[in-house]
Amino acid sequence: MNLESPKVTVQKSAQDLFDLLTDVRNFEKLMPDNIAKFEVIGEDAFIFGLKGMPEIKLKMKEKVAPNKIVLGAASDKLPFTLVSNIESVSDSESAVQLQFEGEFNAMMAMMIKGPISKFIETLATNMTKL
Question: What is the DSSP letter of 80?
């Protein structure tokens, strides 16, 4: 299952946005209002939980400055990645788009497609708050 957020313009350079997103503590600012839990568990990992959903542990898998950050599930039960693609627009502006890729059976994909789409859209929209 592949999902994409809308592309969002942020008033930060690509490098500044990259630096903010490689600090996992900043993801708390991006989370939707219905967040039930957010806990940093290391330099490159955090756990979050949304109301009514199981907790998810994300770990930094890859960093390619200043254009790409890959977060992946730390559990093999639900294998997926969340990729932040950052494009430089100008010295003080960049565009970011999130891509979610996961391997799920048809039933699971049907159940989570809506909530995951809304979640990555919220993350992208909240990038302007960083």
Answer: E
Tokens linked to 65: 């400055």
d(CA 127, CA 32): 12
Question: Consecutive sets of 10 residues in the chain, 130 residues long: mean pLDDT of each?
Answer: 97 98 97 95 95 90 98 89 98 98 92 93 96
Q: Which residues contact 129 (CB under 8 A, 6 or more apart)?
A: 29, 30
Q: With helix as H, strand as E and coil as C, how does 17-75 read?
A: HHHHHHCHHHHHHHCCCCEEEEEEEECCEEEEEECCCCCEEEEEEEEECCCEEEEEECC
Assess contact for 2 and 120: CB atoms under 8 A.
Answer: no
The helix/strand count (H/E) of the chain reads as 3, 8
CATH code: domain of residue 78: 3.30.530.20
* Phi (first) and psi of residue 118, to 5 degrees: -65, -40
Question: Residue 94 is part of which domain span?
Answer: 2-129
Q: How far apart are CA 41 and CA 37, in angstroms?
A: 12
Domain total for the chain?
Answer: 1
